[in-house]
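User: Hello! My lab partner asked me to get a predicted holo structure for this protein. The small molecule is S-adenosylmethionine, SMILES included with the sequence. Please write out the structure tokens.
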Amino acid sequence: MVFSSSTDEHAIKRHHALTALIQQEADRRGKLSFARFMELALYAPNLGYYEQHRKSIGRKGDFFTSVSVGPLFGELLACQFADWLKELSSSRFAIVEAGAHNGQLAQDILSALKSDHPSTFNRVDYFVIEPSPNRRQWQAEQLGQLADKVRWFESWTDLSSFHDRSGHRLTGIVFANELLDALPVHRLRWSQMSRSWREQFVSFEGSELTFVDGDPSPEVEAYSRRIAALARSGKTTLLWPEIPDQLLDVLPDGFVTEICPSAGDWWQQAAETLNKGWLMTLDYGLSADEFFSPARTKGTLRAYRQHHVTDDILGAPGEQDLTAHVNFGAIELVGESTGMNTFWSGSQADFLTWVLSNRVKAAGWQLSRDQVRQFQTLTHPDHLGRSFRVLVQARQVNAAK
Ligand SMILES: C[S@@+](CC[C@H](N)C(=O)[O-])C[C@H]1O[C@@H](n2cnc3c(N)ncnc32)[C@H](O)[C@@H]1O
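Assistant: Hello! Below are the structure tokens for the protein in complex with S-adenosylmethionine.
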């Protein structure tokens, strides 16, 4: 990696420490799956990208999310959450957020609930699932007094044991904005010659990181068996590795795709923990068959640095964000296999327009000029409207729109 003269010394030291960590692991194992490389590059304690880059999101950061557009996104979600929670008969319920990053979205949602839906606010427990102590601290600082309303959990297991101790099961809403696209993916490459999928691993050539192909790892084999079993029991979708021979015949040699076992695991844990209510993700993503469109021959993995997309995925571990599109077909199938009903699956533009039109009809909501500008950015196909999708699944609630 080449550092500019303005790069601070701490960043250089962190980068060297992280590269040494990756090298140690590569030496020990021979090579790393891309998923393990991505896990270290983004989440190695105190060194990974998300451990240090509190200000990575927003106009001055590396990338932009719906939250950076302004508070309207959180206000619209708060309205919808309040409507959904009204349907529940319980006296208390939870909103669980994961991937809360700097706490801005939690703050926008809680502020809107407090001012516009006070009776819901009083009955809600806001839980954040956050494995990193650094990020828990940023979130508490951002929330200020609203932090009193929030309880943090390290993992689903931690949250489940809290429910077991209190004798309750989770009732309410579980959601994440742009979490699943930040989970580690495995990269697969189609070899027309051997008519098989090869996994792309990460290794060192001298001091440079490079991709090397190999037989699929046990994690990929296990994922493949899981999807094959789900596809047999569920509706038929074009999901790796369930690809018809006619498509494999015409797939270009070297076609790349990604799979994300951790996204399926996360969705399954969330669905199994939720006893009654809604499970939602808003994310960069594609339907299952869109992963095999002719425009996707290089896959969907991207690195972001200072608002620029770069193809140099291995270039600067810890200094750039790595993200791959979420396979909405895969997580939909996983959720349905746990008994959830799919309530919404579509673009962010359609979802937010539906939420807003309900508010306009029910409460005569009128947007200010600034809110109109925010709404356009959130829904316009050239901004965040088309590339972002929303999946909502529901359990034991009225799943009709
Ligand atoms: C792209 S950022 C999320 C952006 C934020 N939700 C927003 O809307 O601005 C992804 C976040 O998910 C966090 N994350 C990764 N794995 C996680 C996990 N298993 N549980 C909770 N958060 C996780 C990352 O550290 C990072 O803070």
